[in-house]
Amino acid sequence: MTEHVLVERRGPHLRLVLNRPERRNAITVAMYAALADAITAAQDDAELRVITLEGEGIDFTGGNDLADFMKAMPQDGETDIPVWRLLRALASNQVPLIAAVHGNAVGIGTTMLFHCDLVVAEEGTRFKMPFTELGLVPEAASSLILPALAGRQLAAKYLLLGESFGVEEAERFGLVTHRAEKGSLNERLGAVIATLLSRPPEALRLTQRLLRGTSQDEVLERMTWENGHFSERLTSEEVKNAITAFFTARLKA
């Protein structure tokens, strides 16, 4: 467990909060492990009726903590690293899952949303998946789910070019389900949670499973495919050069 992920139980509601605001909630290996453990454990909790993913501070998350991630690069054939465990947990989750996003949602901060049942986004939220900029490939089955949601051309815009997009566009192609005015994210989230908790719990769980249907196997298969390429890319000169350039640019900023 890590202090950078708050795990808070409120009766039938489990809150998972990214709590590293001084680093814009950049996700470390320890944070991935804490999130994966919490979501996995939730599957056996019959009293649990909703999980929320939230971020403390000015951003939902700035994505991977690259320095931390590169120190813990997966070895050849390794499939049980914390980030892969989190992605599998998200894809296999059977508890209604809501994300509340604001500020920046970068990299996995966007791709994890594809596995949420509902996404509440504050006006001004910026989504970005800069994988190719870093010499990497998409993860979280985003190469499968995003084209299915937005169409291949928009998916190429976001994944090949790494262009950012806002709440209005995200709502239009189906990533965002609820919009919140500036400063009202918690209020909007609370209303969605209250509606879910007013529904019969077994009906909720069964409906959530039906919505995921037979696509789960395909999603997990695509994750495995993506993860293989991702792991290979991490050892490439392209990635090393791109990440060096990223840190150099940040130091100059």
UniProtKB/TrEMBL annotation:
Keyword hit for Oxidoreductase: no
Family matches, as InterPro entries: ClpP/crotonase-like_dom_sf, ECH/Chromodomain_protein, Enoyl-CoA_hydra/iso
The keyword Isomerase belongs to this UniProt entry's keyword annotation: yes
Keywords associated with the record: Isomerase, Peroxisome
Pfam families recorded: ECH_1
Parts of the chain that traverse the membrane: none
UniProt-listed Gene3D superfamilies: 2-enoyl-CoA Hydratase, Chain A, domain 1 (3.90.226.10)
Intracellular or extracellular location(s): Peroxisome
PANTHER family recorded: ENOYL-COA DELTA ISOMERASE 2, PTHR43684
Record's protein name: Enoyl-CoA hydratase-related protein
Organism in which the protein naturally occurs: Sphingomonas kaistensis
